[in-house]
Amino acid sequence: MRTVKASIIGFGSIGQGVARVLLMKKEYLKAEGVEIKIVAVTDSKGTVIDENGLDLEKCLAAKAEKGTVAEKIMSGSEVIRQVEHDLVIEVSPTDVITGGAGLENMQTAFENGRSVVTSNKGPLTLKFKKLNELAEKNGCAFRYEATVGGAMPIINLTKEVMAGNEIHSIKGIFNGTCNYILTRMLEEKSTYSEILTEAVDLGIAETDPTYDVEGIDTAGKVVILANTVFGMDKTINDVDRTGITQITYEALEMSAKNGKTIKLIGEVRKDGTLTVSPRLIPIGHPLSVSGTLNVASIQTDLAGEITVTGKGAGSVETASAILSDIISIYKQD
Amino acid sequence: MKVTMDIELKDEPGQLILALEPVSRNKANLISVFHYHKTNAAKTGGGKVQVQLVLDAKNSVINKIKEDMEQTGIRILRIGEEKYRETITVIMIGHVVNTDIRDTVSRIDETGIAEVTDMSLSMPEINEPTSAAITINAIGKTELKKVVALLKKIAEEKELLLVLPIELE
After folding, report:
1. What span, in angstroms and rounded, lies between the C-alpha atoms of B87 and B83?
2. Which of 42-101 (B) contact A at CB < 8 A?
């Protein structure tokens, strides 16, 4: 049995999802020969540490009751530096403009010889090459399936399962919030702002939805795909980006009359073109998925077109991608 | 003379007979009927099918058939010799009318390689953005790319949102 000591840096929706999934899959992991012992959990207020392994049920209960797990004031990067462990599960809030605390956490992890599994896009859209070089230099694993499409397997699919294929392009819906808004506008014959209000009420959109509706989130994912799958060195500034704020109900209705629907599509092509824009999709086309679903279509030389779809967000769904990354690192040993 | 006619029908029983009735009534010689089964989904989307008729008839008879078909609600996508091979429908959103819709159409038509064949507008309120669905026929794929580049330029100049079909590179 391989025991892996890990920290969870960030204990919001995804961090808690990781804790739940680790509890749910404890026996499964044992059968795979892996025991994940969480030695530190950090949220915005501080940290709880137990080098013998924390009781994750208690961490979840403390978060629900008190709003925090913090027992001492200690930041994520301090935990990564000072607490002895193998793996950093970096799920702190994303910031695609500066990289946020996540960037420092990942750099610190590699400098201290710790592997990283993350759902945090920000650092990868800004410093992808540098982070990968740092991981390699320090002999650390770096996995980030959860950064693109949540539960939808796209990075590992293209890098591993489809090895040998030359990939021409990847296009898809990578933001569930935009997909929800466009789907509901047509269903409810409503304006963008009316459905946005509904999405905020349901917790599908943030109070400040700019990041989603202006296509910034999708652009970040397109950059990660470009760098991972095509080996490019792109940043979010290289994406030609248009969001969905100008889409009208009338445009959706006209499209429907022509047998089409409008979706926010992110696309990366091997010629280096990165775009995010609303596009007309024929109804029934593999990319015309509804609601909060994500979908990606991969054009290849041998396999032709491969399409995958799945839940692009959600606590447990995203945690499932993190779990698969963890297993893939430690099962290889 | 031989004429090729591309038409769009509702994907419902009896629609093809409805389309062929004016051909029979006007005594044109029907040479072939071709259903675009495989490409229908991509070209027209759900609920509609594209059919190509090849007819042998005088010009005046063809015009009469065209009129009769249009009266029954059939959409004529292309007629005549093999001039236009590519069709796209795009959406434009913004102050489409205030930014001179005639100018937009003229600039496409004046290229000589494409023309606007259908347009529908929706203006919910006077100060609200207008949405337009514009169907354009082009001579071929290369010409279609040029027209798309022109559309992008017009949209940028007039600050309109251009929504293009996914199948376009």
Report:
1. 12
2. 42, 44-48, 89-91, 93-94
Q: Work out the percent of chain B whose per-residue pLDDT is above 90.
A: 37
Which residues of chain A have a CB within 8 Å of the CB of B90?
Answer: 280
Q: Is A259 on the interface with B (CB under 8 A)?
A: yes
Whether A287 and B166 lie within 8 Å, measured CB to CB: yes
What residue numbers bound the domain in which A304 lies?
Answer: 156-310
Token couple for B27: 């005594």
Residue A72: pLDDT over 50: yes
Q: What is the mean pLDDT of residues A231-257?
A: 95
Catalytic residues of A: 221
In total, how many domains does chain A have?
2
Domains and CATH numbers, chain B: 2-80 (3.30.70.260), 86-163 (3.30.70.260)
Asked whether the ipTM of the predicted complex exceeds the cut of 0.95, the reply is: no
Q: Are residues A164 and A81 in the same domain?
A: no
Calculated CA dihedral for residues B142, B143, B145, B147, nearest 10 degrees: 170
CA distance A238 to chain B (A): 18
How is the beta sheet containing A46-49 ordered, strand by strand? A46-49, A34-43, A2-9, A87-90, A115-118, A142-143
Q: Which helix (H) or strand (E) element contains residue A264?
A: strand A260-269
Identify the pLDDT of residue B42. Answer: 45
A260 and chain B: CB distance < 8 Å anywhere? yes
Residues A295, A324, single domain; the answer is: no
Is residue A49 located within the same domain as residue A185?
Answer: no
B112 touches chain A (CB under 8 A): no
Residues from chain B that touch A249, judged by Cβ atoms under 8 A, are 124
